Amino acid sequence: MPFPALDGLFYRIVPQARAAKALAPAISPEGRFHHDAQPSLYLSSRPDWACHAIAPYVRATDPPRVICELHLTGARVLDLRNAAHCAAWNIDPALAAIPWLPERAQGLPASTWEVSDRARTSGADGMIYTARSEPSRWHLVLFRWPGASLTGRVLPYPP
Fold first, then answer.
1. Confidence of residue 1 (pLDDT cuts 50, 70, 90)
2. Strands 126-130 and 65-79, bridge-based pairing
3. pLDDT in the model for residue 68
4. N or C: which end of the chain has fewer CB within 10 A?
5. How many CB atoms lie within 10 A of CB 134?
């Protein structure tokens, strides 16, 4: 089953000092959908959804952040909201909703990595996933992003 191409504007929150490098992969070697320093770029389809996504990770002592706007063209993505698409690639989308940090705290591999690893090996450039706290909100993680560019628009964080 082919992956649909995704085009549009997306948003990423980064430290203000890294705004020019907003297309750089996640600096953490592990995250919800990456491990062992796999390249990953986490984006949201709306600025307010990006704010929700990073809220649990923001600390009062963090450096100032900004919301960077990116334009994405032709990203071939697996949509975890599409049951038929997941079934075709033998992916259980429920695994994407399991909190990964408690599993890592126990020394276990994150269940979410099974989903992203399968999406990576399927040839997808990334995948759409929903927010655990509100399934109507969706986000995007990219494994490859040759069709991504910064628009130059930077919004304040928090808005």
1. low
2. parallel
3. 98
4. C
5. 10
